From TrEMBL:
<feature type="binding site">
    <location>
        <position position="56"/>
    </location>
    <ligand>
        <name>substrate</name>
    </ligand>
</feature>
<keyword id="KW-0808">Transferase</keyword>
<feature type="binding site">
    <location>
        <position position="78"/>
    </location>
    <ligand>
        <name>substrate</name>
    </ligand>
</feature>
<dbReference type="GO" id="GO:0009423">
    <property type="term" value="P:chorismate biosynthetic process"/>
</dbReference>
<feature type="binding site">
    <location>
        <position position="132"/>
    </location>
    <ligand>
        <name>substrate</name>
    </ligand>
</feature>
<feature type="binding site">
    <location>
        <begin position="11"/>
        <end position="16"/>
    </location>
    <ligand>
        <name>ATP</name>
    </ligand>
</feature>
<dbReference type="GO" id="GO:0009073">
    <property type="term" value="P:aromatic amino acid family biosynthetic process"/>
</dbReference>
<dbReference type="InterPro" id="IPR000623">
    <property type="entry name" value="Shikimate_kinase/TSH1"/>
</dbReference>
<comment type="similarity">
    <text>Belongs to the shikimate kinase family.</text>
</comment>
<feature type="binding site">
    <location>
        <position position="33"/>
    </location>
    <ligand>
        <name>substrate</name>
    </ligand>
</feature>
<keyword id="KW-0547">Nucleotide-binding</keyword>
<keyword id="KW-0067">ATP-binding</keyword>
<keyword id="KW-0479">Metal-binding</keyword>
<keyword id="KW-0418">Kinase</keyword>
<dbReference type="GO" id="GO:0004765">
    <property type="term" value="F:shikimate kinase activity"/>
</dbReference>
<comment type="subunit">
    <text>Monomer.</text>
</comment>
<dbReference type="Pfam" id="PF01202">
    <property type="entry name" value="SKI"/>
</dbReference>
Amino acid sequence: MKNIVLIGMPGCGKSEIGEILADKIEMNFIDVDVFIESSTSRSITEIFKNGEDAFRDIESIAVRDLSKKNHVVISTGGGVIKRYENILHLKKNGIIIYINRPIQNIVSDINIEGRPLLAKDPGRISKLFDERGPLYKKYCDYEVMNITEINDVVNSIIQIYNKSV
């Protein structure tokens, strides 16, 4: 069975949606950032102290390895789309779903602590949205808006998944 891969902006709901989705359809859930922290014994913030490129290298290795798994829900970091190799790995055995959430909703809800790209400049979220939004749309197989109840979003993803496998 194919994986369900969630992409989208930081704060769009990937992790929460992914956990509920995985539980509901009896799949394992993997958050790439949590996997990286566990496998390196370092926080994302600590890794970023070596530069974004150092983090992206580690992230690419994690994505390559995790994309080999079967029948899992994978919640990616917001910047996973910055390296096309990540998309290629994730598409091999997965359906990529872009969780699109209006930027104003993200800004009002997001906790920037533990998010190294936003901690120094909270206004950067809008810049990231402008930069990454077109890439999310380009690389996803399906787009789901996160503007309703979370269970509605989860059910939409389940319908998409059932139609595509």
